[in-house]
Design goal:
The complex is a heterotrimer of chains A (138), B (134) and C (150).
Chain A: E1 10-14, H1 21-37, E2 42-44, H2 47-51, H3 55-63, E3 66-70, H4 76-84, E4 90-93, H5 94-100, H6 114-137
Parallel strand pairs in A: 1-2, 1-3, 3-4
Helix pairs in contact in A: 1-6
Chain B: E1 5-9, H1 16-32, E2 37-38, H2 42-46, H3 50-57, E3 60-65, H4 71-78, E4 85-88, H5 89-94, H6 108-133
Parallel strand pairs in B: 1-2, 1-3, 3-4
Chain C: E1 5-10, E2 13-18, E3 22-24, E4 28-33, E5 36-41, H1 43-49, E6 52-56, E7 63-64, E8 69-75, E9 79-83, E10 88-93, H2 96-99, H3 103-106, E11 115-119, H4 122-126, E12 130-131, H5 132-148
Antiparallel strand pairs in C: 1-2, 3-4, 3-12, 4-5, 5-11, 6-8, 7-10, 8-9, 10-11
The chains are: A alpha/beta (138), B alpha/beta (134), C alpha+beta (150).
């Protein structure tokens, strides 16, 4: 059994994009995974801190597997992670995911309504499933 | 037409400060200063998206950081632009001690009261920055 | 290996214990400083507490007792009572923290010091404190417990 300090955790790196509604969705979905769905298996990496050179964030992403969660096809989180620490194990793009499931994106970036809560759940479950996949494979 | 001021928050989801910064910016854009404020994704600047770089280089920029790590300000400077103004959410909290947000993203009533105060401070900062340019 | 610190990494956080300091179980440290005892909080405490927004520290001239209250530290998450690891008279309070209380976060063992005490019985008080090598495993146990609360 691994010591707790050597337990594998998955780094979740959301884009948190402020300009688009899907960015808001990335934040809420990622927090749901971190706080409720997989609290013992995940940690969040703050993208701007990552870029600003925080060694803790960068070293974690070099050592442990990561999942990037981007709001749109610009894939800011996936590209930045690959550039600074290495290719993420999974890259989720919310706009693609919503399109495949025929779910409309949120209408507001400021507040989320009931329909958006369903979208948060969908995205959060997708992230959680990828976390499970990574941890099974080791 | 007057150019817009670009306001960039820090993007953190580890602490409530990040969300308060974002919500204050949305309040400015949608309620208080629709005509002269805009925002963009810090992430797009970080991947050197050409449209985002042009927006930031061509306009005055104010950053809103959650804490003393100053991620937004540092990332804007790293992209080659000196910021025209920089606020920290924690400094607004220091003047409003009783307004503690209820969660990291779901801020609750006290959190949104602090957001409103921050938005007002940002509006003042926009005026200061505009006057500097004139 | 770091010369100055004992370190352990947990997730993305590096927890540091400064060598050569003495540690109190309530997460403060003491260091001899030219006849006075300099006091601060540990890296573990500042990380768990979050960004320091307010500090209320005892004034110079005030008497503090070992294990007694010595002000409060407040973040957006919590408010913590600070403990003095040594009894005596406060001789100096870190004025730099008025403008920038987050020095406690960025440099808890250096510029983030809180106050200096003229000790009443330093030889007696320091026997009750832990050196870095003794405190380090206790800090690791606290971290494990904190993380398992999730």
């Amino acid at each position: 059994m691994l010591e707790p300090f050597k337990q594998i955790k998955v780094g979740i790196i959301p884009c948190n994009g402020e300009e688009i509604c899907e960015g808001t969705l990335t934040r809420f979905a990622c927090r749901k995974v971190l706080d409720t769905l997989r609290p013992n298996d995940t940690v969040t990496i703050c993208l701007p801190l990552f870029i600003a050179g925080d060694k803790g964030e960068q070293n974690f992403a070099k050592t442990f597997p990561t999942i990037t969660v981007d709001g749109c096809e610009k894939r800011c989180s996936a590209k930045s992670t690959e550039k600074l620490s290495g290719k993420p194990r999974h890259s989720i793009v919310i706009s693609d995911l919503l399109r495949k499931q025929a779910i409309p994106p949120p209408r507001s970036r400021r507040t989320l309504d009931e329909k958006d809560e369903a979208a948060i759940d969908l995205v959060a479950q997708e992230i959680a499933a990828r976390v499970d996949e990574i941890l099974k494979k080791g | 037409m007057q150019k817009k001021v670009v306001i960039l928050p820090c993007s953190g989801i580890g602490k409530a400060y990040g969300e308060m910064g974002r919500q204050a910016i949305y309040e400015l854009i949608e309620d208080l200063r629709a005509e002269d404020v805009t925002t963009t994704c810090l992430g797009r600047l970080m991947i050197e998206d050409p449209d985002t770089k042009e927006l930031v280089q061509g306009n005055q920029v104010i950053t809103v950081d959650g804490c003393a790590k100053d991620c937004a300000r540092k990332n804007v400077e790293f992209a080659g632009k000196a910021v025209d103004g920089a606020l920290r959410v924690i400094d607004i909290f220091k003047d409003n001690r009783d307004l503690k947000p209820e969660g990291i993203l779901r801020l609750g009533e006290p959190g949104f009261k602090l957001v409103h105060i921050l938005a007002q401070k940002l509006a003042e900062e926009i005026d200061r920055v505009r006057r500097k340019e004139e | 290996m770091n010369e100055e610190f004992l370190e352990v990494t947990y997730d993305k956080f590096v927890f540091r214990v400064m060598k050569g300091y003495l540690y109190h179980p309530e997460e403060c440290w003491a260091k001899e400083d030219g006849g006075l005892i300099k006091v601060g909080v540990t890296d573990y405490l500042q990380k768990i507490a979050g960004d320091v927004a307010f500090l209320e520290l005892p004034e110079a001239g005030k008497e503090v007792s070992r294990d007694g209250g010595a002000g409060t530290m407040e973040t957006i998450k919590t408010s913590i009572m600070l403990i003095s690891p040594v009894g005596g008279i406060i001789k100096e309070v870190n004025g730099g923290l008025d403008e920038n209380p987050q020095l406690v976060n960025t440099d808890p063992y250096g510029e983030g010091w809180l106050f200096k005490v003229e000790p009443g019985n330093w030889e007696g008080d320091k026997k009750l404190l832990m050196d870095a090598q003794t405190y380090f495993p206790r800090m690791k146990d606290k971290i494990k417990e904190e993380m398992s609360k999730k």
